[in-house]
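Limitations
The structure tokens in this dataset are predictions for the assembled complex, not deposited experimental models. Users should treat interface geometry with appropriate caution, especially where small molecules or nucleic acid strands are included. An illustrative entry is reproduced here so readers can see what is and is not provided.
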Amino acid sequence: MYKKFLFVLFTGILTVHLQAQTRRIDTVAVSILDKMSAVIGDLSSCSVTIRSNYDVSSRELGLVKHSDEQELFLRGSSKLLLRSEGDKGSRYLLFNGKNLSYYSMDRNQYSQVETPASLIEMIDTVNKLYGIEFPIADFFYPSFVDDILAESKNLMYLGLTQVDGKECFHIAGTAADKTFQFWVSNDAWYLPMKIVIVYTNKEMNPQYEAVLSNWQVNPNLPDAIFQFTPPVRSKQVRMVPLKNKK
Amino acid sequence: MKAFHQYKLTGMIVLLTMTAVFLPGSIMAQRFNHAGFGGGNRGGAPAPSRPAPMPVRQESRPAAPARQEARPAAPERQESRPAPETINGGSRNFGNHDFNRTVNVHETVNVHENVTVRGGVAGRPAVTIHDHENVYHTGGYRGIHPYYYHPYRPYYWGPRWHPLGFFLTSLAADAIYFSLNNQRYYYDAGCYYLPSNNGYSVVPAPVGAVVSSLPEGYETTMVGNDYYYYFGGAFYINNGQGYQVVPAPFGAVITQLPVGATEQQINGQTLMVYNNTYYAPISQDGQDSYEVVDPNQQ
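Predicted assembly:
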């Protein structure tokens, strides 16, 4: 009787454990993200406007919403220009395949660091070393779908809806520390049109939202726009590695 | 000395001003773990097993040669133009994902009821694939799957199955007789018959009819949390006593349409129509399929 009881108990625990780890991965959602990632992977250059809103938590005021508008230009695997206007001021980030230049128009300050030659390695390295984040960089990782699958507890395709008047596939997912949603255009290009992330592991669950528009696919972007020349009377400052920040 | 301290203080201010801009706490950009890369160690997911990363393509632009006085002859035009360098070297693992790969789950996942678990392996998290939820149901039903046209191939469910309107002078000895709504029906091998001209004609499955079993070859499809069964153009539910004919549920996905379906153009899409039910051609798991849709929403 005792053995029977233990068996039932053990089986029950095992069942609950297995059920508790059930993931829901929708193959339609994966195929849409696959298509999107494949199109991005085949681009030789692109530009896009990103309107982002993000929450900053304040002890007194709760979540305070901030916003930025950015223009992103990419060419080949070693050219990037990011112009940003918003609550953090007017800023530039330029990458020419050798180094990354940062310029604050408000402060007339700039900084330069040597980086790996490839765009994705540069993004990854400066994010690790300096905490610099690039908007929508996730979409440009060649392993984007694999990385999403590695993190996702659930990934579902929810149906068709509109983003700025454009019909999009709506995909939602959850991970251990966040929930996320993507909107992918329902046309030949399958380009990302919107992303929302809710950080469920942070106090008050801050959100990040970015709407992507004015996609230009394979535009002709000259070398000159990726070159940085320090403006007159600008001051050079040093980027501080994360490990040195207190 | 005082001047030195003042300079140092100014330097610190400049330094801190710059770092404040880059603080990672100000949520901005890449938010997912990309463990396959050297940098970006944001914790979380372990590196999934996958082929070795593609070598990063680099812009190997040769150094410009010294300008020469005499202009060299133009090189011969090559037949094949090299492909332009891409931003990230191309997407990886397109359509070739390991769905059962161990996921980075640090906490208990909510249990979903009535979920079909396929491919669950002991010690590894089970993965449910194929479980859509259209959150945009407002009034009519718009297809949840992306439209994907494929040619219609009429399907027959074996020699004893017949399409709508098919006439037989006699039925099989084991055909079942039943009455529904004051109408006498006959049922055999997934087909429903009404007496006609000294014989029997195949008619659409009458909604509400119950049969004890379905012939081999039926499909199971899930809509919401309900299972439906499909055979010969008719949908059924299991009501505990048998299989009851029901109207085609929006969102049901089936792989075969009977002979007799017709194509109809609606808002630029080619839908299939069979027995007043509209089906959108779709692709599911690489297989040509159809989804029951509301034509008014397409």
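Some entries come with short summary sentences. For this one: Residues 167-297 of chain B form one domain.
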